[in-house]
Amino acid sequence: MAVEVSNNHKQQKATERTPRILVFACKWCGLIGADGAGRKREPLPPNFRVIPVECVGSVEPDAVIRAFADGMDGVIVMGCHLGGCRFNDANHAAFKRLELLRALLEGVGIGRDRLLVTFGTAHEGHQFTDVLRNFTNLIAKKESLDTSWTSSRARMI
Amino acid sequence: MKNITVFLCTCFDEINRVVDYERLCSHLSDDPRVAAVTVSRGLCVSGGAGEIGASVKSGDGRVLIAACSPLARGDQVMRDLERAGVPAFRRHLVDLREGCAWIHGNNPAAATEKALDLLNMGLTALEYKEPSADVTLKIADEVLVIGAGPAGMAAATALARCGVDVRVLERGAQPGGMLGLVSRSYPDNTDPSEKIAAFRDLAASDPRITFHSKVKIISARGYAGNFTVRFTAEGEELQAHAGAVIIATGGRVFPPKGYYRYGEVREVVSQIELEARFRKGPVKKENAVFIQCVGARCEERPYCSTICCPASIKNAMRIMDENENARVWILHRDIMMPGTTLEAYYKKAMERGVRFIRYAESDPPRILGDEAVETVEVRDDITGDRRTIPADLVVLSTPLIAGTDAEAIGDLFGIQRDSYGFFREIYPLHPVETRIDGVYICGSARWPVSSEQAMVQGEAAAMKAAALVGRQTIRASEFSRVPGAKFGHARVNEDTCSGCGNCAAVCSFDAIRLQRRSGEGEFRMVSRVIKVRCKACGNCLSVCPNGSMQMPEMNTKALYGMVGKAFS
Ligand SMILES: Cc1cc2nc3c(=O)[nH]c(=O)nc-3n(C[C@H](O)[C@H](O)[C@H](O)COP(=O)(O)OP(=O)(O)OC[C@H]3O[C@@H](n4cnc5c(N)ncnc54)[C@H](O)[C@@H]3O)c2cc1C
Ligand code: SF4
Ligand code: SF4
């Protein structure tokens, strides 16, 4: 379903363009999953870019907002299982923060489901693949975000 | 600035089979930041890291490596670079194999576009990365052991044998801990006072061990290599400077108040009271009933305390030793006797005629009798029969719970406790380490254990501490939970820090302190990062409202730069 947008801002119809997806993957789980997918040579849509981070704790909400402002259609943050974080409970804190951010994104009309926060296990290439494919499908069905509009919206936060 | 050297690895044509390297090269050579581009066939096998290192060592050279994933050979190349003198902020790895060529083999054009973006992201990151200044610390050579129960005694003994100076702080008047309250120790039925006396002698004769009794800890400050602990011992105020701290403060026995008419009728006692009676003299009883899991494995305390089943079995046999006609029942919910020795001990008890009856948690035994206990009524959960057992002694097996000052000790040293108040290790795989480097835990302070296990853990903690204080100096970056050095640590800009304390609150390594900073005409609080403690998770910078907290090797500029170049 398309995002509910509460005002009449200019919107593009769903375009042919494949959505742009940015993945923040922590080195200890998300990135290992991505690596697993790579090792199995799983064919994946080339519409995503991975930024490796030490821990999802370091994914500042501002960076996610910046991603939308810079034209991303969706952002995924991948961390380790809650309780399985190498940095004590750093991913718990990140989870809470990013949940709040999702609410904010909803509030400004970007939509909460454009930010996916997942916590999974390392060594599971298929998990990475599934998450990425499903998310791409979800975002592809949405109206694409108009960047001039998103940036001003995103910067409001 | 033209200071980035790029090395593109083809991985023996694995990558350039899909990705158009000619386009990458021409794009890169047009970039004003790139000094040189070299295409190599196998960076990991050519041993090229040394040469790469030499080529970028001078001035402000930086190196971008495009090769396979860090988990394949990428990290190895990075480690080689580290050894060759190229620190984290001067290098960046781009994964073009697992992260690009291998997953987009069916779409070479898009794969090349993606590779270009990834390289651009890398270049931008390199442009902004900064170093976290490392610090080298001197390590104090003494180890502090808090608590002189079996765990603390074993730790101190092991350290002294390794030639390490150790200072033991004991709250009580004597060493021994809970073992000093036990009449005989399972599974070998030895008198624990021998073990305790042996330690007392060692502490008195070995110049490496300093033993303080009647200790009260006042304060603890510092970090791995440099802890300062102030305390009073027999009223006298003292201070210790230690490189590592071993916490062996044990637990305490849960008092069975409110259970099985304890305190209401005579001869309903706790296990530890029975131990005290044995220590005074023989306990002659005709019919003794032990009740297990009193206040344990229940909703409030769902854990098994592990020591009460063997303790009951030990004391059941002891009662039979002292009166050969005595009959003994153990009413249990499960008998927990793991391992070869304890299982053999359990078998021996059955052979000797100790009777085991299983009851259900929902239908616990009842104590009957007016002044003193007369009978115990129990429903056998296996047969369903209700039985009335004559009893002139009922012993309640209660679990160990966290010590009275576990909270205070935890707060002093910044270590975490679990839901039941026991100290928490780093789970999994680091059984005696805590989230604070240089602070180790062992024995019942960590989780209820037998004295033997407490000793094993004490020795394990001693070895960890010895490995730390055995060195003269250490670099902050070495305190990493992962092989190799951690990649950096957080840095605060004191000029812009507003002292809000968000970072200090979120840091789960207790690595940030708010401190006063007084400059000309200013007096305010700013946060300071304790580099040794910081593990570089980045949580603090995510909550800093004005970007004062940064991770130099991946600062906001570098991160935002990468985001901006993701689809360029
Ligand atoms: C009834 C009963 C029977 C048992 N029988 C046996 C047995 O037969 N065999 C066996 O192997 N185990 C037995 N145990 C278990 C055994 O006693 C414990 O496992 C063992 O003592 C744990 O050792 P510990 O060193 O970890 O802690 P403890 O023995 O509890 O020692 C902790 C020490 O730290 C000191 N301390 C605490 N707080 C501070 C502080 N803030 N500052 C300074 N010092 C402090 C305490 O005074 C104490 O001396 C029994 C336990 C109970 C309850
Ligand atoms: S060891 Fe203690 S808590 Fe565990 S089953 Fe036995 S009596 Fe219950
Ligand atoms: S990076 Fe993590 S460990 Fe380091 S100071 Fe910040 S919150 Fe604490």
Word description of this protein:
The complex is a heterodimer of chains A (157) and B (568). Chain A is an alpha/beta fold and 157 residues long. Chain A has one domain (17-142): Lumazine/riboflavin synthase (Rossmann fold, 3-Layer(aba) Sandwich). In chain A, 40% of the residues lie in helices and 16% in strands. Chain A has a four-stranded parallel sheet, sandwiched between helices. In chain A, helix 3 (90-107) links the parallel strand 3 and strand 4 (115-120). In chain A, helix 1 (30-39) crosses helix 4 and helix 2 (61-69) runs antiparallel to helix 5. Chain A is globular. Chain B has 568 residues and is an alpha/beta fold. Chain B has four domains: 4-131, Rossmann fold; 142-252 and 402-471, FAD/NAD(P)-binding domain, CATH 3.50.50; 255-398, FAD/NAD(P)-binding domain, CATH 3.50.50.60; 491-558, Alpha-Beta Plaits, CATH 3.30.70.20. Chain B is built from 15 helices and 28 strands. Chain B is elongated, with a radius of gyration of 32 Å. Chain B starts with a strand and ends with a helix. The chains are: A alpha/beta (157), B alpha/beta (568). Bound molecules: flavin-adenine dinucleotide and iron/sulfur cluster (2 copies). The site of one iron/sulfur cluster has 13 residues of chain B, from helix 9. Residues 146-152, 169-172, 177-179, 182, 185-186, 215, 217, 248-251, 253, 271-272, 275, 307, 311, 314, 403, 405, 409, 443-445, 449-452, 454 of chain B line the site of flavin-adenine dinucleotide.
